Amino acid sequence: MNEDSPVQILKSNVWYSNPIFIQILGICSTLAVTNNLSNTFTMTVGLMFVAAFTNITVSLLKGIIPRKVRMILQTLIIAFYVIIVDILLRAYLPEISKALGPYVGLIITNCIIMGRAEAFAQSHGPLISAWDGITSGLGYMWVLMLIAFVRELMGFGTLFGIAVLPAGFTPWTIMVMAPSAFFLLGTFIWVAKTIILKQEASSMQPKPGRKQASCSAMQPKGGK
Amino acid sequence: MKKNGLIYTVLISVVSAFLFVFLLSLAYGATKGKVEENTRLTEARAYLVASGITVDGDTDIEALFKSTFPGFDKDAAYQTTTVNGKSVVVSPFQGNGLWGTITGVIGMTSDLQRIVGFEIVSHVETPGLGGRIDEVWFKDQFKDEYAANGIVVKHGGGGGDKDPDNGVVDGITGASRTSDSIQTIVNQQIDKIKKELGGTNQ
Known about the structure:
The complex is a heterodimer of chains A (224) and B (202).
Chain A: H1 6-16, H2 27-33, H3 37-61, H4 70-92, H5 94-100, H6 103-106, H7 111-119, H8 126-156, E1 158-159, E2 162-163, H9 173-176, H10 178-203, H11 213-216
Antiparallel strand pairs in A: 1-2
Chain B: H1 6-50, H2 61-68, E1 79-83, E2 86-96, E3 101-109, E4 115-122, H3 136-140, E5 152-154, E6 168-170, H4 176-197
Parallel strand pairs in B: 5-6
Antiparallel strand pairs in B: 1-2, 2-3, 3-4
Helix pairs in contact in B: 1-2
């Protein structure tokens, strides 16, 4: 099976090598923004945009960038797109820009983007790299949205700011704070891993997930 | 030129840094007017809200602002206006939050007994935690709150404070530091308005 076919990339980034629950990348934003669905959504869309365009640019420039300075230039490219997103939000969507505050800038330090630029875009063409960026963003988005769903529902009794639970409901304060994201993410990894292991055991075929060594080099920079 | 040589490496780094920053400044220049316009509108809106005027999506903020504050002076410490027959003192504030400067506008009755309105213009507090100072429920607590002796932003308990006569508003769960900052900023501002108006410190 071709590892780099668009469908394989989609499956891999959304499930088998999901950036959040398999590669455990970009955790600081997982802990911080996920107590509110609207913020989570904008943040993940921003990440998807930056990941896709960074991948395209890195892929286009890979031929002329010397190996020695490739990482610092990747950071430059990521910072460039993040500031572009920030400028666009400020000019055309001031409300969202206000709500997200410093988090737009923090996309720069999200390991998923640099991880994909280094692991994928450095060795692939621009179109397929863009797809890789978008699907990585999707993999990030659905996990964060799920966590945000539980946190906002239990923490505030609302979904996207609209009250859904009865007024008598006592909000779970812990769900608003960062530690709850740890508990939820841990539970999520447990469930996801169990499903993946079951799938592997029942199919007894080599799993289609891609090599993960590529990302281990990026891992120590998780903190915010 | 050797691709891994020093000269090529430096050249590429400088050229790409220049190129990307150049594009950024282009984008910044192109949207500058729009951003300034947004900032101005946000401020005008904040002044209106602080004077106790209800502003929604259809309000012509610009026109309403001009009619409410005909002699608006950007650098003045406070503005006075009359809303629904009551005279109001409106004053812009700024102070330190947890991560950066919080700016906004606060309005008080002219006898400085009660807060009329409270609006945040800008802040860089943590979204979802301290950033919730910009949510409507938080700002609405200040409306009509008795504040002749300043206010207290309450921590803990969980019961909530609905009494507008005790000068106590609810803090934000998970953001005690930002809540403290708001308390300090608002109290300092109230003192400042008192001094500016030359009133006695009651």
